[in-house]
Q: What sequence folds into this?
């Protein structure tokens, strides 16, 4: 039996074998054979285990790492369960249909994309959850966009962009709080630092959505919108008081943790379905598990509103657990640490340091989920910030740029899987239109290489940009 002392980090060839092998498995299963991504991730487990056995690990040790990786992402699984319940009851209770109905009646097609971006921004900031925002306001915006003739990937890009503004900036967002904690930065200082990147990204993204909306303006045929509104009115009780659960959840979310608030919102949805939509009491409660089911006669509405419930999320949850297992295995056998050591030797100036943090965060999403990305981004690069005497507010800001906002860009991450399931648009289809997220990454890298808003620890109070950074080998 090999002792812990006999273990070593994988060498460059073994790392390349694992990473290239992972990419090859994903390509072969998903692109060539069109098999479920779940199977590709499961096969990847054994690929990584083979590398671990070669460098001296026992299976039991690697299993412990796999389980640890899954454990680190379980909060996301709990959020998905509650959001699934919320989506189902808010559809059946008339909350989402009412948002769709009123949205169609007041939103002009020329500003639809900007409106979707803005509404999802506000919703995510006040609730602190991108998943909850996309599953409620996002679904409504997708319906309105389709009725106006907009391509679903374009609308999904506006929705997801808005949802991740709040996920990144809201003081009640779990990722915001977690990043500040991992980087050892006051949460308000963390948010103020992120605003340096987020404000220009938000303004530019908003301008792009406005311009594209003016030039595109959908099909210009509002007959589909009229038909959808009539169908919603026929199958749901549409009224202003249908929106009260959304108001209550927003108010509670500003003061309480997201999981109990979302679950309470799901319960309110069941109550509204029973009282106002005529759903039998037990059936209204069961919607939290089984989801919403309607037959409107309009294929698009049926596809959009026949969803939600815990069952709706089981496939997503299985995929995330498998992805978290990949990350846990890679962390256990030292692949992530070895890559981190290489990045530490390479990151000899603020530009490279910023790049290394963004890459580390993105790696966390590729081999795990949003929470994993925040851990990899901070733990792999934090010593370099201290060595170069760069304030940790820069670390926390860069971590969110590499971790939080890139989550929906990876098809098998928790964000990518959820957004595809909730909005009905594949990750690779909406990816070119997630302009806020892409701009955050771009602006963050520009700041790093131009020494913009990069503060020394000695001068943090004065917030003076670095003039010179002494490079080390």
A:
């Amino acid at each position: 039996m090999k002792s812990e002392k006999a273990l070593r980090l994988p060498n460059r060839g073994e790392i390349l074998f694992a990473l290239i092998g992972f990419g090859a498995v994903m390509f072969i299963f998903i692109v060539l054979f069109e098999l479920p991504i779940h199977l590709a991730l499961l096969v990847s487990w054994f690929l990584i285990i083979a590398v671990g056995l070669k460098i001296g690990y026992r299976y039991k040790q690697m299993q412990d790492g796999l389980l640890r990786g899954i454990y680190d992402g379980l909060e996301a699984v709990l959020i998905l369960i509650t959001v699934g319940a919320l989506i189902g009851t808010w559809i059946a209770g008339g909350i989402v249909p009412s948002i769709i109905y009123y949205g169609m009646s007041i939103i002009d097609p020329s500003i639809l994309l900007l409106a979707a971006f803005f509404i999802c921004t506000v919703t995510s900031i006040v609730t602190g959850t991108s998943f909850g925002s996309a599953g409620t306001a996002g679904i409504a915006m997708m319906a309105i966009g389709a009725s106006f003739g907009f391509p679903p990937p374009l609308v999904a890009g506006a929705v997801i962009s808005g949802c991740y503004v709040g996920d990144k900036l809201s003081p009640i967002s779990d990722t915001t709080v977690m990043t500040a904690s991992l980087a050892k930065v006051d949460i308000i200082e963390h948010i103020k630092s992120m605003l340096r990147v987020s404000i220009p990204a938000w303004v530019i993204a908003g301008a792009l959505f406005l311009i594209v909306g003016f030039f595109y303006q959908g099909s210009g045929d509002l007959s589909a919108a009229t038909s959808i509104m009539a169908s919603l009115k026929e199958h749901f009780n549409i009224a202003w008081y249908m929106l009260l659960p959304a108001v209550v959840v927003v108010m509670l979310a500003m003061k309480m943790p997201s999981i109990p608030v979302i679950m309470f919102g799901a319960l309110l949805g069941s109550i509204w379905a029973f009282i106002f939509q005529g759903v039998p009491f037990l059936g209204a409660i069961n919607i939290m598990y089984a989801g919403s089911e309607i037959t409107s006669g309009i294929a698009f509405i049926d596809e959009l509103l026949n969803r939600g419930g815990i069952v709706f999320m089981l496939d997503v949850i299985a995929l995330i657990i498998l992805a978290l297992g990949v990350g846990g295995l890679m962390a256990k056998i030292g692949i992530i640490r070895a890559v981190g050591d290489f990045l530490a030797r390479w990151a000899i100036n603020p530009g490279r340091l910023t790049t290394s943090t963004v890459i580390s965060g993105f790696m966390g999403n590729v081999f795990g989920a949003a929470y994993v990305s925040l851990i990899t981004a901070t733990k792999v690069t934090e010593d370099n910030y201290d060595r170069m005497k760069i304030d940790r507010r820069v670390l926390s800001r860069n971590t969110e740029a590499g971790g939080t906002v890139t989550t929906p860009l990876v098809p098998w991450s928790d964000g990518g899987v959820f957004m595809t399931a909730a909005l009905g648009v594949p990750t690779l289809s909406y990816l070119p239109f997630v302009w806020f997220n892409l701009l955050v990454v771009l602006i963050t890298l520009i700041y790093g290489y131009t020494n913009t808003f990069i503060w020394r620890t000695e001068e943090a109070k004065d917030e003076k940009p670095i003039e010179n950074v002494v490079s080390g080998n």
User: Anything to note?
Assistant: Residues 187-216 form the longest helix (30 residues).
